[in-house]
């Protein structure tokens, strides 16, 4: 570990915007300060992020350092400690998902908002076109597509000849096609 006088000199030079001094200060103090951060945060990625913030704070506040009040390493350790406390207090919105289990559990095949809007608009157009059909054509098409009934089943339910049901369905579909075009 570097001597206190060396660290004091480096802090004075940092206060004068000497980037080389910050580089040397980092090289001399980062192992010990990183250890402080790691002990407090218990996650290497968080400690690395906090350390980056801390050296920016040290650089920006070097002019406020007073050798009469504390040793350089004590002053820098206090900055690290306070930054770690701030980090632990802020809400952690990040949820680690290294193996994508969260994404896979929440993923579904449902269409997204734009696809749903397009479906809604298509459905609205189809509904408008269905309203323009004769009631019997609308009923036959609804039974065929929504109830999944065959022409024979529709004919039996409506007590209508099979050929008539097929004609209603065909004419209705032609009118729908023309309306939607």
UniProtKB/TrEMBL annotation:
Example GO molecular function = sigma factor activity
Q: Which UniProt keywords apply?
A: Sigma factor, Transcription, Transcription regulation
Q: Which GO terms describe its biological process?
A: DNA-templated transcription initiation
Residue ranges occupied by any RNA polymerase sigma-70 region domain in the UniProt entry: 25-90
The reply on keyword Transcription is yes
Instruction: List, for all copies, the residue spans of the domain called RNA polymerase sigma factor 70 region 4 type.
Output: 125-176
**InterPro entries documented for this protein:** RNA_pol_sigma-70-like, RNA_pol_sigma-70_dom, RNA_pol_sigma70_r2, RNA_pol_sigma70_r4_t2, RNA_pol_sigma_r2, RNA_pol_sigma_r3/r4-like, WH-like_DNA-bd_sf
Pfam entry (one): Sigma70_r2
Q: Which family does it belong to?
A: Belongs to the sigma-70 factor family. ECF subfamily.
Name the PANTHER family on file: RNA POLYMERASE ECF-TYPE SIGMA FACTO, RNA POLYMERASE SIGMA FACTOR SIGZ
- What name does this protein carry? ECF RNA polymerase sigma factor SigK
Query: What species was this sequence derived from?
Result: Amantichitinum ursilacus
Lineage at the top is: Bacteria, Pseudomonadati, Pseudomonadota, Betaproteobacteria, Neisseriales
